[in-house]
Amino acid sequence: MSSSRPALGVGMVGYAFMGRVHSQAWRSVGAFFDLPVTPVMAVLSGRSARTADAAATLGWAAVENDWKELIRREDVHIVDICTPGDSHAEIAVAALEAGKHVLCEKPLANTVAEAEAMVAAAGQAAARGVRSMVAFNYRRVPAVALARQMVADGRLGEIRHVRAQYLQDWITDPEFPLVWRLQKDKAGSGALGDIGSHIVDTAQFVTGQNLTGVSALTETFIRERPLAGDSAGLAAGADGTGRGEVTVDDAALFIGRLSGGGLASFEATRFAAGRKNALRLEINGSLGSLAFDFEAMNELWFHDHTLPAGDAGFRRILVTESDHPYAAAWWPPGHGLGYEHTFTHEVKDFLEALAAGTDPTPSFADGLRVQRVLRAVEESAANDSRWTAITG
Ligand code: SOE
């Protein structure tokens, strides 16, 4: 569809879960969206001997074993960072300084200090026309984008409550191995950073408001786990060589205030047995309410409180009509989208911003804002849930 447009070479670092889903997005985006540029899957970087196989399977033309070499390449214009959080800052700052646009997985970094360095590098790069974006993909679920539009259009009136949950169950079994997502030095935090970061970003995105302070509880239910043979991802097998300490939270609960005066509650856990990827959001405003659950991601529920009580109820909007966000590019009404499409939408919006010379969102500054909430949650939880303002 977009083959006669200028080409932009993509270099991706990391090829586990996020690398696979980003590859799918880069592969398919030009087939469904009429883009102003053509992304070229130029090079994949990974440290292990499996990188070449991964590149062949996922559709990357070349391989580098050192990400620094990937950044140096002239055929790479965009660096897509799909590694654990401990390397985000180093790779992103180096890429931006080398004049490469950067798409970076979430959470932006493992600490506020790293995120601040990334924002500073992004600011300097932007002055040279080099752009950056953090990959909070759930903003690009059509139903979530529609929810934001409805709030912005005033359909909910004044926002009083936000109830956000991200519920998974993949580490409920105490014998599930100690993968990198359970190690603080690699992941920064546990459920809090991995999935709590998503609900903080989604809540702030949909309401257009920021959290100003929090009071929090965190817990680690299983403190030791079998060492992981290969800590590649969610399904890694244990290698039977002993046990190691879980150094992150298993669950985080917090309440907060929104800049517009509303109250918000958040729950992030990987111990909600039976819940697989339940990113849920309910918003109550003076004129109505919205409810969303990613496990039924093509649906948005709306209660219009201006209607006569007898008629109002909650009505289901099937977010697959051609006038819904992103939907027209895909299938006929009612046929629905999945998890991977959110990443396709993400790279589509990213590429359009690059072509237009505008700053894509969410920006690194948005990622830093989320990082400050995560830090406040950890500080509050470490201090008997003391109220902790979000500063900076
Ligand atoms: C694991 O909890 C995980 O893959 C997250 O890392 C992703 O960000 C989320 O989209 C799904 O769950």
Automatic annotation (TrEMBL):
Q: Report the leader peptide range.
A: none
Pfam families assigned:
GFO_IDH_MocA, GFO_IDH_MocA_C3
Could you give a GO molecular-function term held by this entry? Answer: oxidoreductase activity
The yes or no answer to whether the keyword Oxidoreductase is present is yes
Q: What is this protein called?
A: Oxidoreductase
Q: Where is the GFO/IDH/MocA-like oxidoreductase domain?
A: 145-290
Q: What is the lineage of its organism?
A: Bacteria, Bacillati, Actinomycetota, Actinomycetes, Streptosporangiales
For this UniProt record, the keywords arranged alphabetically read as follows: Oxidoreductase
Q: Where is the Gfo/Idh/MocA-like oxidoreductase N-terminal domain?
A: 9-125
What InterPro entries does the entry give? Answer: Gfo/Idh/MocA-like_OxRdtase_N, Gfo/Idh/MocA_oxidrdct_glycsds, GFO_IDH_MocA-like_dom, NAD(P)-bd_dom_sf
